[in-house]
Amino acid sequence: MNPRACAQPPTEPEPESTQPEPTEPEQAKSTTSWLRRRLGRAVVLSYAAALFLPGPGLWLSRTHSLPLGAAGALSWSTAPLLLSLVLFSAGLQVPLRALGTLLRRPIALLAGLVLHLVIPLLAIPAVAFLLRRTPDTDGGSGLVTAMILIVAMPVAAGATVWTGKGDGDQPTMVGLVLASTLLSPLTVPLVIGALVPLLSGDYADTLSRAEHTIRGAFTFVGVVLPCAAGILCRLVLPAPWLSRVLRAVVPLALAGSLLLTYVNASGALSSFLARPRPLLLAAALAVALLVCLLSFAVGRGAARLLRLDAPVASSLTLACGMNNSSAGAVLITTTLPDKPHLLLPVLAYGLLQKTAANRVVRRRPRRTAAPVPPTCAP
C-alpha cells in the first residue's frame, strides 16, 4: 500500500430518513412564485384602480347584512374577512420544523419582539412633538392616531415574501411574524394604552373606549384565530389534503391581499378626492416616511450591535420596519369609520415599507470559496 496515498476521510453514518414536511405542489409553487414576483406592480395597480374606479371598493368597505329568516340577519364586512384569509394562509405556510432551530438560538426572536414594543415608544412621541409645532387645529392628533394603530400591529405576514426574494433567514422571519401575531392581544392594547396620552380631544376618547374591542374582537378573533387555524390545519391534515389546500389557499390569499389593498385605498383616496387637502397628504407622507425610516434604522442598528449573521440581521431589520398595515387599516375603519382620511398615512406607510424592504433584501453576489484539496497522510 502506498504510504503517500491520500487518506480517505472517515465516513459519517447517514442520518435517519425523516418524512419531509408537506410543502406546496410544484404547480402551486409556480403560480405563487409568478404572483409574488409581480406583487409590487400588482399593488400599484390596486392603488390605480382605487383612484380611478373607487365605487366597488367603497361598496365592499361597507357593512352588509345577510338575511337568515327567523334567526335575524348576519352582518359582515369584506375587509376583516380578507384579513382573516391572509392570516390563515400565513399560518398554513409556517414551517414548524424549521422553527426548532430558532428556539435553540432565540436571540434574534427575543430582540425582535422587544424592539417591536420599543420602537413605537420612541418613534410616536417624536412625531407628536413635531406635529404640535404645526398650525393644525388638533395638534396632529389624527395623524398620530393613524401611526399608533400602524406601529402597534404585529409584524406583517408579507415580510416572509420579502425574505424569500432576498437573502433573509426565513425561520427567523416566520418566527417573528408568528410570535408577534399570537402575542398581539397583549401587545396591541399595551402599546395603544401607553401612547393614548399623546392624543387630544375625540381621538383619545375613541381609542380609550375601543380598547376592549381592540383586545378581544379584533386582535384575538380577527388576527390570532385565523393564524392559529392555519397552523392547526397544517398539523392535522394528511399530506395529500394539505397539498390541495395549499394549492387553493395560497394564490387566493395573495389575490385577497391585493383586494384588501384596493378596498382600503378606495376609502382613503375617494375621501381625499371629494375634499382635496394637499397639506394633509404632504403631512401624511412626511410622518409615514419618518416613522418608517426610524423603524428600519433601529432594526439595522440592533442587528449590528448583536453581531448577527447577515441573513438573520436582514430578517430582524424587516421585522422592525414592516408592520401589518392592512390590519391597521381595518382597525381604523372599525373604530373610526367617520374619518377615512386617516387611511392616507396607512397607505403611505404600506408603500414606503415595501420600498425599504426591497432595499434591505436586495441580493448581493456571493463569493464562491476555492475548492479545498484533500489532505494526505505524512
UniProtKB/TrEMBL annotation:
Membrane topology reported for the UniProt record: Multi-pass membrane protein
Tell me yes or no: is Protein biosynthesis among this UniProt entry's keywords.
no
Q: Where is this region: Disordered?
A: 1-32
> Mind telling me which GO cellular component terms the entry cites?
membrane
Where is this protein primarily located? membrane
List UniProt keywords, sorted A-Z: Membrane, Transmembrane, Transmembrane helix
Its transmembrane ranges are 39-61, 73-95, 107-131, 143-162, 174-196, 216-237, 249-273, 279-298
Localization in the cell: Membrane
The residues forming a coiled coil are: none
**Pfam families from the xrefs?**
SBF
Name the domain of life: Bacteria
The protein's name: Sodium-dependent transporter
Organism whose genome encodes this protein: Streptomyces acidicola
